[in-house]
Amino acid sequence: MTAVDARQYFAAKLAHEIDPADLAQIRGADVSPVVVDTRSRAAWNQGHLPGALHIPGRELAQRARRELPDRSADIVVYCWGPGCNGATKAAFTLSDMGYERVRELIGGFEYWAREGLPVVTGSGLDGSAHPGR
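Given the sequence above, the corresponding structure tokens read:
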């Protein structure tokens, strides 16, 4: 791989991914993207990012136009974690539908919670939730 190829690869990767710390930072700066949880209802109920929309991956194609009407909006999708490709599939679906600014949350819900960032559970907001403990 040449230096130019590497530069193009990493620029494209950065354009389509965001890590939990960066997402938390921009959400606190009033330029928040639309965050979409693509997991099942059971997973959503166990915990999710504050302010996220819940649109399970298998329902995304049918619900996106209604619930995400702005195709130029900044959208971040996530699933459980690095062992789950639900967010990748959702990002592909949205991009294929004409959404212009879709990113995947690196590490998904698992990495978000692992960094001690706020999550919402059935009992409300927990500022340092660590599911599975």
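The first strand starts at residue 17 and ends at 18. Try to locate this feature in the token string yourself.
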